[in-house]
Write a structure and sequence with these properties.
The complex is a heterodimer of chains A (337) and B (255). Chain A has 337 residues and is of the alpha/beta class. Chain A has 12 helices and 14 strands. In chain A, the strands form 3 sheets. Chain A has a 6-stranded mixed sheet, sandwiched between helices. A 4-stranded antiparallel sheet of chain A has the order 2-1-4-5, with helices on one face. A 4-stranded antiparallel sheet of chain A has the order 12-13-11-14, covered by helices on one side. Chain A is elongated and about 80 Å long. Chain B is an all-alpha fold. Chain B contains 11 helices and no strands. In chain B, helix 6 crosses helix 11. In chain B, 43% of the residues are buried. The chains are: A alpha/beta (337), B mainly alpha (255). Chains A and B meet through helix 2 and helix 3 of A and helix 1 and helix 5 of B.
Chain lengths: 337, 255
């Protein structure tokens, strides 16, 4: 066992001159459950791909299980398990055949192979479905099979790229339990990427928040939330807010305020006790409060704090951009005719 | 360069399982060559084609050509099937495994060549039932050698294209500008002696020319080049293609 499962210094990957991952540095202790949190396109998958030897880095240094990512690819491949974001199963094979394929590729001998395949099937509760073609599996079953597969060869480090993407809440919680169990009981170092706040919060010992190829923050979840200094009270307001904002700024127990369209987000201790007071202040300044929401700080707020945007907004604007490009393309095509 | 026999075996096994489960794929792969054989054979039956000696009728001339064609198509597609694995994500599973890239290429070639040979043998068998006379067991064994070499050559070619392409979009380009010209230039359907001289030169760089000619030499005992020439040149072509295929596959990025 190495003290550090992963060590990364100034790791960078550019595609056509654009940095998808931009000089990131971090270390992950052996046995840690480390999360990369960020919106789609933040560079999480690219980071995983570099660490799992699928992509060459443009510059910088990376070490996985004590091996240099640019030199000892086969050593790394032997010591890691990877569960990719998109399914990477052969759907024309059965569940068991997929596992056996993997076990053979990793050089397990016949007896050990049989044992391990049975073991991991049991772990993810797919023993009964083992002879079904994977094309007939549900999304959740495929995910579980992939996690099982990643474990057959007892990797030191397990990479999970968006392990619960597109799964229903129940399956998601199921998979979270597996991940926790693997990490706590099996002692596997786990690096997972996600854009679900609650997933990172629930699972990870430590989180790096990633945005546009860079780390904007890295710490244990509780401390990240502490940065915000307490509860968040969001108020939807109607009317001219300028006077109200001045007034709130003068309140010493409000630690932070951000305005987002018609919503004011205020940070304070013991938010539930301050709400009546806030509504009064608003009324005094001629502003109508239409909705109040109290939240214990979440990582969503942390992300907002560091980037000035919410993760959901980040994704929405991307969809918008895509739609705009498609519309522009359509117009050009129509124009030509 | 490390060769991992288990990895080659397991990739081959995967291909076999997939092949045996996809009955429609087998039927589909056999249909086109058999239609070619039936309709061209019947349609040109009465024509005296210059370059084919009197005692060989057209159908006899055609069978080795059609076998060559089926190997050309199914092998090139076999090499290109890396793209399907990329599309379905399975390529990543193969690429993060701790086995040398050369073993992966060999595994693919072993799997692709086996399925191709099964199809070629089926076509030969069906032709035999339809009246194509096979002179001896040794002629079939000799034909098998040529089938294998043709298959390896075009599996390598398919791999080169697969390494250079991101998805299946370039497929029809490869089909129309590579596979069909190779097929028509090879003399699978007619004697190359009928080509104008400049085109005959072009056909001499087509590996399939020697493949089809070698098949004719072994199956019907009629050929333009000697058996040894065909064998030697095809051996060179297949070796070069394997090396190039492995080189480009190694270079290509899997995500």
């Amino acid at each position: 066992m190495h003290e550090h499962a992963i060590k990364v210094e100034d790791l960078t990957k550019s595609f056509n001159g654009l940095a998808a991952v931009d000089h990131i540095s971090f270390t992950v202790r052996s046995g840690e459950l480390f999360g990369l949190l960020g919106p789609n396109g933040a560079g999480k998958t690219t980071t995983i791909n570099m660490l799992s030897t699928l992509l060459k880095s443009t510059s910088g240094y990376g070490e996985v299980a004590g091996h240099d990512i640019s030199k000892s690819k086969d050593d790394i491949r032997r010591s890691i398990g990877v569960v990719f974001q998109e399914p990477a199963l052969d759907i024309k094979l059965t569940g068991k055949e997929n596992l056996e394929f993997h076990a053979m590729m990793y050089g397990l001998k016949k007896k050990e192979r049989k044992e391990r395949v049975e073991e991991v099937l049991k772990l993810v509760e797919l023993t009964e479905k083992k002879d079904v073609l994977v094309e007939n599996f549900s999304g959740g079953m495929k995910r579980r099979l992939e996690i099982a597969r990643g474990l057959i060869h007892k990797p030191e480090v397990l990479f999970l790229d968006e392990p619960t993407l597109g799964l229903d809440a129940q399956t998601r919680h199921h998979i979270w339990d597996y991940i926790k169990k693997l990490n706590k009981e099996g002692g596997v170092t786990i690096i997972l990427t996600t854009h679900y706040m609650e997933e990172a919060d629930f699972l990870c010992d430590r989180i790096a928040i990633m945005d546009r190829g860079k780390f904007v923050a890295m710490d244990i979840p509780a401390r990240l939330k502490d940065i915000l200094g307490g509860d968040v009270v969001s108020m939807e307001i109607e009317g001219k807010a300028d006077a109200l904002i001045d007034r709130i700024n003068s309140l010493e127990w409000v630690k932070n305020m951000t305005r987002h369209n018609e919503t004011l987000s205020l940070t304070m201790e013991k938010g539930e006790r301050r709400i009546p007071q806030l509504i009064n202040v608003a009324r005094e300044n001629g502003v109508n409060v239409t909705c109040v929401h109290l939240r214990k700080p979440s990582l969503e707020d942390v992300f907002l704090h560091f980037t000035g945007r919410t993760i959901r907004e980040e994704e929405a604007s991307k969809t918008e951009r895509n739609r705009a490009t498609i519309r522009a393309r359509m117009r050009r095509r129509m124009g030509r005719r | 360069m490390m060769i991992n026999t288990t990895a080659i075996y397991v990739l081959w096994l995967r291909e076999m399982k997939r092949f045996l489960r996809a009955k429609s794929r087998v039927v589909g792969a056999l249909a086109m060559p058999l239609f070619f054989l039936a309709f061209l054979g019947l349609g040109f039956r009465k024509l005296a084609i210059p370059g084919i000696s009197g005692e060989v009728d057209y159908i006899r001339f055609l069978v080795p050509g059609i076998i060559g064609m089926s190997i050309l198509f199914s092998s090139t597609f076999g090499g290109l099937s890396v793209l399907w694995d990329r599309e379905f994500g399975f390529l990543k599973e193969i690429m993060v495994a701790p086995v040398s890239r050369v073993s992966i290429v060999f595994g693919r070639i072993a799997g692709g060549a086996t399925t191709t040979l099964i199809q070629a043998i089926l076509i030969l068998g069906i032709s035999h039932i339809m009246g194509f006379k096979i002179s001896s067991v040794s002629s079939v064994l000799l034909a098998l050698v040529f089938m294998t070499l043709i298959s390896i050559t075009f599996l390598g070619l398919g791999l080169i294209f697969a390494s250079k392409m991101r998805d299946m979009q370039g497929f029809s380009i490869v089909m129309n500008f590579v596979i069909f010209p190779l097929f028509f230039l090879s003399g699978a359907l007619y004697p190359l002696e009928n080509f104008p001289p400049w085109l005959r030169y072009v056909s001499k760089v087509d590996p399939l020319t020697y493949g089809v000619d070698g098949l004719r030499a072994s199956l019907i005992g009629v050929s333009s080049f000697s058996l040894l020439t065909n064998f030697a040149l095809l051996l060179v072509f297949s070796s070069v293609m394997i090396v190039l295929g492995a080189y480009f596959f190694e270079k290509s990025e899997s995500v």
